[in-house]
Amino acid sequence: MTKEERAAYHKEYRNLHKAEFAAYAKKYYKKHRAELNAYHKDYYKSNQAEVIAYAKKYYKKHKAELNAYNKDYYKSNKAEAAAYHKEYYNKHKEELNACKKDYYKENRAEVIARRKDYKRLNPEKVKAHGILNQAVKKGEIIKQPCSICGKLKAEAHHPDYSEPLNVIWLCRSHHFTLHAEMKG
Ligand SMILES: [Zn+2]
Ligand SMILES: [Zn+2]
C-alpha cells in the first residue's frame, strides 16, 4: 500500500464510522469530563504565557477570517446572539456590577480625572445634557423611544449642542451607528 492509498483508506474508514467516532468521543468526554477540565486548567495555569502568546499569534494571523466569520455568524444569529448576551448579563449581573464597582474603587482617581477631562473637552455637550436632563426631570420634555426602531430605552442625540432641548431620541445602537456615520 502506498502512502496515498493508506491515507485514502483511513479517510474512508473515518467517514464510514464517523457517527461511532463522534459517539465514542462524546462518551469519553462525559466520563472523563472532570479530569479533562482539571487537566486543561492545570495546563493553562502552568503555560499561561505561552497559551496567551499562541492565541494572540493565531488571532493576528487569522484576524481577517475570524472577523469575517464573527460578522457572518453574528448576522445570521443576531437574535440568538442578543438573547444570549441578555441572558449572560442577567445571570452574571451581580458579578459584573461588582467588577465595575471594584474597578471604580481601584481606579477612582482615574475615573474622576477622565470625567473631568470629558467635561473640559466637551463643555457644550455636558451643558446641553445638563439642561436637557433638568427639562426631562421637570416634565418639560418627555423621553421618547428610538425614532428608528422604536426601542423604549433611548438616549438623546443633539444635532446641535447650542439647542439643548432640540434632540432626537435614539436607542444605544442607532445612536452609535449615527455617530459612526457622522465620523466617516
Ligand atoms: Zn434604535
Ligand atoms: Zn449623539
* Strand adjacency order, main sheet: 1-2
Summarize model confidence as the mean pLDDT. Answer: 87
Bound molecules: zinc ion
Percent of residues in beta strands = under 5%
Q: Give the overall form.
A: elongated
What is the helical fraction, as a range of percent?
A: over 70%
Radius of gyration: 26 Å
**Element string (H = helix, E = strand):** HHHHHHHHHEEH
The poorly predicted ranges are none
User: Could you give a short account of the major beta sheet?
Assistant: 2 strands, antiparallel
Helix count equals: 10
Distance between the termini: 62 Å
Number of strands: 2
Structural class, please? mainly alpha
Describe the structure.
The structure is a single chain. The chain has 184 residues and is mainly α. It has a domain at 122-183. It has ten helices and two strands. The protein has a two-stranded antiparallel sheet with strand order 1-2. It starts with a helix and ends with a helix. The model has no long low-confidence stretch (mean pLDDT 87).
